[in-house]
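Cross-posted from the bioinformatics board.
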Amino acid sequence: MEKQWFTISVYSENHVGLLNRISGIFLKRHINIESLNVSKSEIEGVSKFTIVIFSTEDWAIKIVNQIEKQVEVIKAYYHTDEETIYQESALFKIASALLFDERQIQNIIKEHHSQIVTVSREFFVLAKTGRRHEIDEMHEALEPYGIMQFVRTGRIAVSKAAMPITNILAEFQNQ
Amino acid sequence: METLKAEKKDTKKKTAIRITGAEAIIHCLLAEGVDLIYGYPGGAIMPVYDELYKFQDRLTHILTRHEQGATHAAQGYARVSGKVGVAMATSGPGATNLVTGIADAQIDSTPMVCITGQVARHLLGSDAFQETDIVGISTPVTKWNYQITRAEEIPEIMAKAFYIAKSGRPGPVLVDITKNAQFDELDFVYEKCTGVRSYKPAPKTDMSAIEKAAELINNAKKPYIVFGQGVILGQAEEELKALVEKAGIPAAWTILGLSAMDTDHPLNMGMVGMHGNYGPNVLTNECDVLLAIGMRFDDRVTGNLETYAKQAKVIHFEIDPAEVNKNVKVDVAVLGNAKQTLELLLPLINKNEHKEWVAEFEKKRQIEYDTVIDKDIYPTKPGLTMGEVIEQINVASGHKAVIVSDVGQHQMIACRYAKFKQTKSNITSGGLGTMGFALPAAIGAKMGAMEREVVAIIGDGGYQMTIQELGVIFQHNLPVKIVVLNNDHLGMVRQWQELFFERRYASTVMTNPDFVKIAEGYHIKARRVVERSDLKDAVEEMMASKDPYFLEVRVEKEDNVFPMVPTGASISDILLK
């Protein structure tokens, strides 16, 4: 089976230690987590993990089953890139002098639709949100001029199909 | 949604009492029906031990000689009784010594609650004396774990711990309790947990899967059942027997499925796997429908997956959805508790018998008997065999004893040859293969079924890993029967060295102490058998004893266990010699 990108979405109780339990599932099988994001979800008190892996579908299924087996996990899903809307964000810290010395920098900011977050005497910070390759392209464009600091978030994604967590919770309540 | 509570509780109104966290822990245990725990005290758990002292008329604490012994004893107790085993230890080394038993309980789905003391909340993370991150350490080997840092959390977490440990596919739960939470007071009310919203103990059974399974079974010419511990944990022994008899299907068991079905039942064909029986292995690759019931296709069962049951339609009856298609791709997955799913299946099954197919098993059984079994259990050559000792125990116990085995050659021989009439009678470390399991597990097994005879079968290697638990047997005069099959070797490793490492016997020869004297040092009646002519009398004397009894049998040093599926080989290529 061919490897591809999968986004694993996990809805869980917000408990200390669950991250450790979930990451252990990947560790045990030597599957590298390409990116990981934990945030609140659309339901109060329910956390959402968004985990990106490059793997076969067979392994994605097994991993999702193991994650879902954890007591504090409400539901886990896996999706291909085509099945999700996903984005990442990045911050670039660049020396302020370049903004004036290198005309090209201003063009890069415009062409890549990035925002200037802050400007100070020493540096300015650019923010870019988009697909991984778009951020990579902007990184490539800025690199020759010198990037003081760069950071990118993990992927965040929503699925095109429904993830009916509220139904699952309501079902529990009605049992 | 915010009004939803994450846990369901028994809602009967109860009045609160003001007590310390330590006392609350005792009340929680009593409320869960616990009357026996195994453990070892130490600094961070002392407030709880102080309360145990006050409650000793209602809650028995057995001081094992090592924390690992406490976990195995709790496991043995849980496995014979079906109840949750409880083990307790202090922080740091006390807690880390539990880890082997916890891992064993996890892989063998044994319900167990472990309670550990922890340094006070304000010291957490400071590398305080005997501080260790046991929650972090135990995470991969527990079904659930939690650190309590406030006394008020105790009733809810303890209720949840017991609920999670015993529901669905059972497993070990660890609750770590900081010392301040033991000392502080709380308004105590106990409500049993009846549900956790993020946790589904058993998946919903899909009736169409049952129908598909029934159709496959009814149309099968060579149907074959392999059952595991799921039958015992799900209390589905009667339903399994009914299915086997109604449809006339030959059945075999995994090591943990042993004793779920009478070993003398005409359709009980024996053990599958690496040292299993000849027919059950070879015919797995000849059946047309394979019904896997409450088992997980462990690598020791399947051998090479590329050649495992490829010709068969596979139906998997399983409570844990994560086990389905994990190792073997199945055609029909019937999710749910085995008792319930088999009950739904039975009315759809046609009465049938498969005489020719069953005869195939009989033929293979005869081949195995002639080449292996006869020599193992009725040897005529000089030198005692492990098999004849097991057979002698069968005769003396009338197939009624609980047999607790350790890990290695003697374990395979015990599981191959021990006879059982009653379920929950075979206690062994299956998945983890923990040497040192048997002696403490036998203590727990005895205390979980005082009316039953408990015989521990142990090798000379594993025996010395937890030999200190003789102290418990002596102190409480527990009439456990201990049989050490002594070949002065780590026999199974030696066998592999002989077969696969060109007889390079690295560190497998043991110079052993006088085991009889050691037992006598603990005031346990002891006897050594060196000659075949003494064996029957010694086993009878042991079985008749009302007190604990130790029997050392000096067996052949270089016997090998056969049949054998070499690692990575197909089960069809099982070796008879």
